[in-house]
């Protein structure tokens, strides 16, 4: 059984910690888990969320250490301070989980997502879609006489904004990878 390391940024749970653990304010948190790359680990993590009624806004997972057989799971979830603390504690008790990192508490994190966005239209709507794609630095990866498929990377808010602008121009489909995130600095 491996030792568990829970990193929570510079804040600690001491008598002098002034954070309000009873706050009803719902916040978004990005959690990174370092886990054993073995069958059933992802199902156990997802089962924890489902079994307790927690929602997952975004989920990505991939092996990051081939020799050590470790994977990184990045989860974006929402909850009060108490709920987020409970989620982290419960994740830390799952045996194949080696580390739980709350990137939101670590300070600024770099978060990126990849999206494929299909827009169907003709005439002026096509021209406007291409103009907006250029402004947002979205690449055309497929084109027919009736549609475009744009590829875009960036912060989730940037992708949301682009998709909303494409809606009146003929947005027909969106596929997103989910957030990949790393803490900034050392």
TrEMBL record:
Record protein name field: Acetolactate synthase small subunit
Superkingdom of source: Bacteria
Family per record: Belongs to the acetolactate synthase small subunit family.
NCBIfam families: acolac_sm, PRK11895.1
Example of a GO MF term: acetolactate synthase activity
Domain ACT: 30-108
Gene, per the UniProt record: ilvN
Protein task: Catalyzes the conversion of 2 pyruvate molecules into acetolactate in the first common step of the biosynthetic pathway of the branched-amino acids such as leucine, isoleucine, and valine.
Subunit structure: Dimer of large and small chains.
EC class: transferase
Pathway assigned in UniProt: Amino-acid biosynthesis; L-valine biosynthesis; L-valine from pyruvate: step 1/4; Amino-acid biosynthesis; L-isoleucine biosynthesis; L-isoleucine from 2-oxobutanoate: step 1/4
Catalytic activity, EC: 2.2.1.6
Reactions that this protein is recorded to catalyse: 2 pyruvate + H(+) = (2S)-2-acetolactate + CO2
InterPro entries tied to this protein: Acetalactate_synth_ssu, Acetolactate_synth/TF_NikR_C, Acetolactate_synth_ssu_C, ACT-like_dom_sf, ACT_dom, AHAS_ACT, AHAS_small-like_ACT
Keywords from the UniProt entry: Amino-acid biosynthesis, Branched-chain amino acid biosynthesis, Transferase
